Amino acid sequence: MADVGRVLALDHGSTRVGVAVSDSLGLTAHPHSVIAAGAGLIEQIGTLVADLAVERIVVGLPVGLDGSEGAAAQEARRFAEEVRAATGLPTDLVDERYSTVIAERAMIEAGARRDRRRRSRDSVAAAVFLQSYLDGS
């Protein structure tokens, strides 16, 4: 999936949204920030899209280990549609299974302290599934 332009990844949760972004060629993913869910969220995403010159958005789809979808997956689908409608950009859903676990392990291996891991976990998880998306897996 090389050369897709800059891609924004959103790891949607009930209280926080992890944000990651790719480089301008769409080759590598980088954690960006964590923003509060709630009022003003869509506007903040719109600002990020404009500021970062994003061409596509991916939203993590939380599916069970067996591939089943529950209430959180339905909420992610609703959120992705809201983001697509607000930005006008192509918006894809990507399987985010294991992304938080992988993010946590990577931060532990890097020596990140517990408070930093807590603050960064969602954006690092978004970078994990964004990189998988960029790699075409």
The CATH topology comes to Nucleotidyltransferase, domain 5
> What would CATH call the class?
Alpha Beta
| Shape, principal axes of CA atoms | globular
Residues in β-strands, percent = 15-25%
Overall radius of gyration = 14 Å
Structural class: alpha/beta
User: How many E strands?
Assistant: 5
| Distance linking N and C termini | 9 Å
Placed side by side, the strands forming the largest sheet appear as 3-2-1-4-5
Order of helices and strands: EEEHEHEHH
* Helix proportion range: 40-55%
Description of the structure:
With 137 residues, the protein is α/β, with parallel strands linked by helices. It has a single domain (7-135), classed as 2-Layer Sandwich (Nucleotidyltransferase, domain 5), CATH 3.30.420. Helices cover 45% and strands 23% of the residues. It is built from 4 helices and 5 strands; from the N terminus they run βββαβαβαα. A 5-stranded mixed sheet has the order 3-2-1-4-5, sandwiched between helices. Strand 2 and strand 3 form a beta hairpin. Helix 1 (41-52) packs across helix 2 and helix 3 (99-109) crosses helix 4. The protein is globular. The termini are close together.
Annotate the secondary structure layout.
Blueprint: E1 7-12, E2 16-22, E3 29-36, H1 41-52, E4 56-61, H2 71-87, E5 91-95, H3 99-109, H4 114-135
Parallel strand pairs: 1-4, 4-5
Antiparallel strand pairs: 1-2, 2-3
